[in-house]
Specification:
alpha/beta, 5 helices, 5 strands, globular
Length: about 120
C-alpha cells in the first residue's frame, strides 16, 4: 500500500488509519516520489492526491496506467476537486476509485479493502 499526498497531515491520517486496519503502508510526498518508489514498495493499492507539486495525480495515474510494470496496481484518487468534470477526468485515467475530500476514513478503508481483495483474488 502506498499513500501519496503532499500534505503531511493528510498523508499521516490516511497511513495511520490504514495501518490500524492491518495494511502495510509506505508513503510518498508527490507523484514523482510515487513513481520513484513504486518498484521498491510494490503496492497492491495506491491512494493518490491530485493537487501536488512536481507531478500531479492526473499525470501520475496516467503514467502508472501506461507502464506495463505498474498498470495492474489499483489506484484511488483522493482530491478536493469534486466537480463532475474532475471525476470524469480521474476515472478517464483508469483509476479504480475517486474519493473527494473531506472524506470519511471508514469509506476509504472499505474502498482500499475491496480493491486489495479484488487484486488478491485475481492472482
Amino acid at each position: 500500500m502506498l499513500v501519496v499526498d503532499d500534505d503531511e497531515v493528510i498523508r499521516q491520517l490516511i497511513a495511520v488509519n490504514l495501518t490500524l486496519e492491518g495494511f502495510e503502508v509506505e508513503t510518498a510526498y508527490d507523484g514523482q516520489d510515487c513513481l520513484d518508489r513504486v518498484a521498491e514498495v510494490d503496492p497492491d493499492v495506491i491512494t493518490l492526491d491530485v493537487m501536488m507539486p512536481r507531478m500531479d495525480g492526473w499525470e501520475t495515474a496516467t503514467r502508472l496506467r501506461t507502464d506495463e510494470d505498474t498498470s495492474h496496481i489499483r489506484v484511488v484518487l483522493i482530491t478536493a476537486r469534486a466537480q463532475e468534470d474532475d471525476r470524469r477526468r480521474g476515472l478517464g485515467t483508469g483509476v479504480d476509485a475517486y474519493l473527494t475530500k473531506p472524506f470519511d476514513p471508514a469509506e476509504l478503508i472499505q474502498i482500499v479493502r475491496d480493491l486489495a481483495t479484488r487484486d488478491s483474488s485475481a492472482a
